[in-house]
Every structure is written in C-alpha cells, then in structure tokens.
Amino acid sequence: MDTAPPGQALFDVSGKTALVTGGTRGIGLMIARGLLDAGARVAISSRKEDAVAKAVEELAAHGEVHGIAGDVSTPDGARALAAATHEHVGGRLDLLVNNAGVTWGAPLEEFPDAGWDRVMHTNVEGVFHLTVALLPALRAAATAPDPARVINIGSIDGLRSPTMDNYSYAASKAAVHTLTRHLAAKLAAEHITVNAIAPGPFESRMTKFVVEDAALLTAATAEVPLARFGTAEDATGIVVFLASRAGAYLTGTVIPLDGGITGCR
Question: Quick one: the chain helix, strand, coil %, rounded to 5?
C-alpha cells in the first residue's frame, strides 16, 4: 500500500510541466503564476501575441515560462496549439488547464447568433479538441500513482441559474461540467484524471464592469457568504491540490470555488 509523502511534499508540483490556456489574464494568469511559484514549468497561451509576450515578461521572474499564441475556437487551431506545446515543452505534459473562454451578454430576445457560436466554439469545443490533441503528451506523463491531470475551468453559472443575460456562457459552462465527467470516465483507465473548477466571482476582464462600479461591487459581494471576491491564492490553491499527490485520487468532480454561493444558499 502506497504511503502519501508527509507535509509539503503531499502538495509538491515542482518539476511538472503544465499548459494554461487563456493564461495571460484573469484566473488563467493567477494559476500560471501560482504554478510557477510552486516549481512547475509552465506554458501559457492566448489568441493575441502581444498579450502573450506581456504575460511572459511578467511571469519570467517566477520560473520557467513559455508563451504560445494560439486559438482553441477551431479544431485546427486547437491542434496547432497542441503541436506548438510539444515543441516548447516536449512530448510529456503533466497538467492541462483548459481556462480559455469568452462570454457574451445581451437581452433574451436580442441575443445574437454570434453570441452562441463564438462562446460554444471556444468554451466547449475548444476544451474537447485541445484535450484530445494533447492526449499523447498526457499519456506519456501518466502513471498509476501520479496521473496526468486535466483541469477544466467551468463556472458557478453552469451550476445555477445566473442573474445576468449570459445565456450562451452559462450553457457552455454546464456543458464543460458534463464533458469533464464524460472525459474522466473515459480516461481513468489510462491514469489521466479530469476535474473541473467552477469559480464564483474573481477579479477579471469579465467582471471588470462590476469591480469598477461601487454599487455593483457591493451587491455582488453581498451575494457571497464569505463576503469577498476570490483571490489568486484561492485559484492557485485548488489547482495545486488537484495537480499534486494530494489530488491524485480525485476524478470526475466539479468543485465550486465560490465563497459558499452554491453550497450555503
């Protein structure tokens, strides 16, 4: 019977290789920085080359980071990103964080077709196509005691009925949660775990309009039982847990990271 390593070693991710999509801002940037600080080697991706270059410059002081411009919203784009990841970090990938995502808001009867197509292509199909394209690298890293990990970033808007008119976003995140369970069941025998994190309010580009409006920020914070937005430490902590020996026996889960919004009310 295996004995878990004591103390900090239980949460050790040093030497592991990770790809964080959408890693140039928001929760993706928080996760990338946290993994670097924990000793992992990290590749980040984003559609915009200038954003990638800026993020790499910011993160370089924290560890070995590689920047890749790539777009997961098309199957070819996802496969190209997988190929570029192979070139940058080699044929083994310990951790894939599928964080790249977009949102769209519009009143119900005015919601445009484009607001569905762009969101679904990126948030759902992107997760699927990139994960499949990176399976050879994940398999190369996977062992029974230390599986390769896929972490999908969902949302509490995929767990509850949202208050905002973000119909395609909420539906896409619910789809991500179901896809997570489906992939977990399929890949468990290959020692690849697949879990999802469902964040509540964090400071990001998507929530900028709330953070910059005092009244909206007060109202949003009041909905959180722990009475605050999530922090970089909150995002990093759950990812390090899932990526380390501490989280090796967990797969097919959707973990709310929301200060108690979905669990306490």
Answer: 50, 15, 35
pTM to 2 decimals? 0.94
Q: How many CB atoms lie within 10 A of CB 183?
A: 23
> Is 249 tagged catalytic?
no
Of 104, 128, 167, 169, the active-site residue reads: 169
Question: What are the tens digits of pLDDT across the range 167-191?
Answer: 999 999 999 999 999 999 999 999 9
Instruction: Quote the CATH superfamily of domain 8-256.
Output: NAD(P)-binding Rossmann-like Domain (3.40.50.720)
Q: Which residue has the tokens 């192979």?
A: 86
Where does the chain have alpha helices with state H? 26-37, 49-59, 75-89, 113-120, 126-133, 135-141, 167-187, 208-211, 214-222, 232-243, 261-264
Place of tokens 């801002």: 25
Opening angle at CA 7, ends 190 and 10, nearest 5: 10
Tokens 């990290």 correspond to 42
Span 195-251, pLDDT tens digits: 999 999 998 766 667 777 777 878 888 899 999 999 999 999 999 999 999 999 999
